[in-house]
Amino acid sequence: MSSFSIAWLDLRENADFAARDKNLVTQALHWLGQAAAPISPDRIIVDLGAGTGSTLRARTTLGATNLACRLVDLDGKLLDEALRRHGKNYLIEDYQADLNIIGELPLTGAHIVSASALFDLASAEFIDALIERIDARKTAVYAALNYDGTTTWAPAHPLDEKVLAAFNQDQRTDKGLGPALGPDCTAYLKQALEKKGYTVSIQPSPWQLDGKDAQMQQELINGIAMAVSEGYDLNVDELIAWKIFRTANIANGNCSIGHWDLLALPR
Ligand SMILES: C[S@@+](CC[C@H](N)C(=O)[O-])C[C@H]1O[C@@H](n2cnc3c(N)ncnc32)[C@H](O)[C@@H]1O
User: Fold this and answer.
1) Residue 241: Cβ-neighbour burial (10 angstroms; 0-12, 13-18, 19+)
2) What pLDDT is recorded for position 37?
3) Max CA-CA distance within the chain?
């Protein structure tokens, strides 16, 4: 299952929704004036790396209506799926674009720029350039589900620490948006936005997975094992034993993977 496939995004969505800090979503909606104001051209949410519209669904599940969303993604299939799911119910504009071309991102009219599970894939250079554009318009920022480098499994296995260290190294390689900040992205985003005078709140949003998330855990174990299988000096046999142990303990064990949500409001 690829990291941006519809199947994977669907599989993680329940855990994502449970993890999201609901107060920050509510504050973001309050900022948008969504409850009081009718849709107007200056009440637009621009969701970057929108996938199939998970961030939009999180807002509507928490009661938001009358949303005007512009969904931006490189992958036309994901955008088509978002439109298929929501095109009739919400005012949605889809925009296929490479986020790397920051000067051309469609931020016109944006009141909030949002992103979920995106900024840990991004480089410091990308974030700096994006914030320049966002700050020029004094647009708010909602950035959810940024991986923080922590993962704990129960029951523990002797190789957990080494696997995590290797995985976190891999998270800092280029994922298409420059050398990724990976676990450092929330701290980086926070200081960069504060430097511009934004008021920034962050809250933890860990995935808490147990036996009911068996398929998602299996995909995570497979993905982590594959990511660290080459280039990180892990013994192949030990890694196979780790994978077998982790898989055997999916049903009765649990797993917590740290993320942070961030809301930045212009002063
Ligand atoms: C981990 S997924 C998150 C999707 C969605 N926000 C969610 O929470 O379900 C990252 C998304 O970023 C998009 N993406 C990655 N690199 C991109 C780029 N260079 N330009 C535009 N979109 C990109 C992928 O296509 C994918 O939809």
Assistant:
1) middle
2) 55
3) 60
> pLDDT digit string (tens) for 229-259?
999 999 999 999 999 999 999 999 999 999 9
CA atoms within 13 Å, Cβ hemisphere of 184: 14
Tell how strand 207-209 and strand 254-265 pair up.
Answer: antiparallel
Which amino acid, residue 168? N
Query: What number of other Cβ atoms are within 10 A of residue 116's Cβ?
Result: 26
- Tell me if 90 sits within 8 A of 64, measured CB to CB: no
Is the Cβ atom of 98 under 6 angstroms away from ligand 1? yes
C-alpha of residue 72 to centroid of ligand 1, in Å: 9
What separation in Å is there between the alpha carbon of 4 and the centre of ligand 1?
A: 7
d(CA 119, CA 3): 14
d(CA 139, CA 84): 28
Q: What phi, psi does 80 have (nearest 5°)?
A: -60, -40
Pairing of strands 254-265, 140-154: antiparallel
Cα(157) to ligand 1 centroid in Å equals 32
DSSP type of residue 97: -
- Please answer whether residues 18 and 209 qualify as being in contact, where contact means their C-beta atoms are separated by less than 8 angstroms: no
Mutation test of ligand 1: which of 2, 3, 4 has the most ligand atoms closer than 8 Å to its C-beta? 4
Closest to 63 measured CA to CA, from 92, 30, 109: 30
Report which ligand 1 atom has the smallest distance to the Cα of 145: 8
- From start to end of 50-139, where are the E strands? 68-73, 91-96, 110-116
Q: In this model, does residue 32 exceed pLDDT 60?
A: yes
